[in-house]
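Title: [Solved] Tetratricopeptide (TPR) repeat protein 3D structure

Original question kept below for reference.
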Amino acid sequence: MRRHLLLATSLLLPSFAHAADWYEGSSKHFIVYSEGSPEQVTAATESLERFDQALRTITGTPDKPLSPNLRVTVFLLDDVAAIQKLSGNHSIAGYYQARASGPMAFSPRKTSGTLDARSILQHEYGHSFMFSSWPSAVFAKWFVEGFAEFVGTAYYRNDGTMTFGAPPETRKYGINQANQIPASQMLMLNPGKLDGLQTHILYGRGWLLTHYALLGGHGKELADYITLSNEGKTAEAGRAFGNPSDLDYRLNRYISGKTLPLLRLSKEQVVVGKVTLRKLGVGEVATLPARMRSSSGVTTETAPEVAELARRLAAPYPTDAAAQNELAEAEFDAKNYAAAEAAADRALAADPKSIHALLYKGMAQMEAAKAAGDTNPERWKAIRGFFLKANKLDTDYPQPLVLFYESFAAAKQAPTPNAKNGLLGAYVLAPFDTGLRVTAGKVLLEMNDAKAARVAFEPVAYSPHAPADNVALKVLAALDEKGTEGALAVLAEADAKAKKAAEDAEKKKKG
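Solution (posted by the thread starter after getting help):
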């Protein structure tokens, strides 16, 4: 589920915040916030960490060092109804946001019916894992979704064994509908515009071909397909699995077998590191309803409501760093920059090493200076100082580097080489953030590095969730035809178009 699902529509969440104890479960790749017993929160955190380690085991992916601020923050709510109320979408059971400031996931503790929160969370984490593990590769839409569906249905047995290969229940119809999107079309990097039914089938057939490759003894063909696709040898890639005209027949025969092969990993095969548990403080629990809404995402319309909620909830806790950090974020989202900075100052007084507070203090000052048209170099040096302090506290966290780079455009100054290098470093750290990839691609175009720019834009251009107006795909076409200058012209045109649309929307709102 992507950010377009994140429309918060109600002022108050269910009154869970004072019902029972809340805990933070912390592991190498996840931070889990949940109500419940210590044992339950520990088990939930271990389950997610085991899933990550299982993905590394089945793909042979090494576990690299990770910034603690880039761990996935998971909020576990009571049930699907609470998730739908938070998101404003009544057809989802959970959702995930991959972003450089820190990935976020929202999932219920209890589910029923066809909406399976675990599968959704695992599907979306599968995407993030793919783009983090293989950031320089481009994958066809069928494999992007097929791999996510394949890992999404992984489940635990009572003895702790994790099993991969179960068919996705929600894709049963699409799995058998080869006539709607034949293999010859599906294997293309860009299979063309697909309607809703074809997209559904792409997920199902993508799962089937992934299963066929990974568990059906065709891993070499998959590796050849990916290699040839990335070398631009599209015709050869289309034949990597043999004659595409009979691949659909082979897949149908594979799925019609009596028993599909499964991959099982025992608890002993997947080693999970230490999970630490922390009971949340009173101020932290009190402000959770506002924090969840801020983290989920607000709009221009809902931001003032969340800020008002945060003010009320944080008021009794002026010396609580967590409560004041949430207030700083909520005030910033509502464009109350002086109030945001004041809250950040209170958070820093309680915790001088709070990276969140440093960033929001710098962001609040940056927006205030930008609104005032202030280009005083000393003022901007001071603003950037907050981002530099945050970077020194965690050099592997990309967000301070992103903000440092963005500060130059805000000050109407050309970014320095150091700022550009920092931005590219952030992109290396968080290649799963689509917006960051596009910005990094633009920087690489400006540096006349066409090859590296192509690597940045390709996963965006061929994303299954690319918008109808696929700017990244246009950039690649322009790069082929007119070089880096032509690609930059496409981006400039898109930026101008987006700016005009925003101005028109603002005028309509005021008028």
